[in-house]
């Protein structure tokens, strides 16, 4: 892929199990928000990675479906061997983690939306949202 566009003003926020090499010409930005989580949860130390890193596989799966490059040798346990690609293989992505194992918090979602400088697709696991009514108002 060509270099990241000069107009990109995002950042690659480092954190647990997520270092500078995690961002590249494909994943050009990553940031996590957790002030709502910290306010609501008592056992902050039991959370998954305190970083943009995905702990459940949902974000990785979604990102690769949307923007993964072509892979020639893939299979699932030896079945369905062949090639695969996503919907837009030349797309760059930025990751904004706002949901944690215990749920999503409105203040973190809103902070991420405020930070975004270009148009991105947001995928949220609604069954983990703490307050579905207020979150759904953001999208409707």
Automatic annotation (TrEMBL):
<dbReference type="GO" id="GO:0005576">
    <property type="term" value="C:extracellular region"/>
</dbReference>
<dbReference type="GO" id="GO:0006508">
    <property type="term" value="P:proteolysis"/>
</dbReference>
<comment type="similarity">
    <text>Belongs to the peptidase S8 family.</text>
</comment>
<dbReference type="Pfam" id="PF00082">
    <property type="entry name" value="Peptidase_S8"/>
</dbReference>
<dbReference type="GO" id="GO:0004252">
    <property type="term" value="F:serine-type endopeptidase activity"/>
</dbReference>
<keyword id="KW-0378">Hydrolase</keyword>
<feature type="domain" description="Peptidase S8/S53">
    <location>
        <begin position="45"/>
        <end position="116"/>
    </location>
</feature>
<dbReference type="InterPro" id="IPR000209">
    <property type="entry name" value="Peptidase_S8/S53_dom"/>
</dbReference>
<protein>
    <submittedName>
        <fullName>Subtilisin-like protease SDD1</fullName>
    </submittedName>
</protein>
<keyword id="KW-0732">Signal</keyword>
<dbReference type="InterPro" id="IPR036852">
    <property type="entry name" value="Peptidase_S8/S53_dom_sf"/>
</dbReference>
<keyword id="KW-0645">Protease</keyword>
<dbReference type="InterPro" id="IPR045051">
    <property type="entry name" value="SBT"/>
</dbReference>
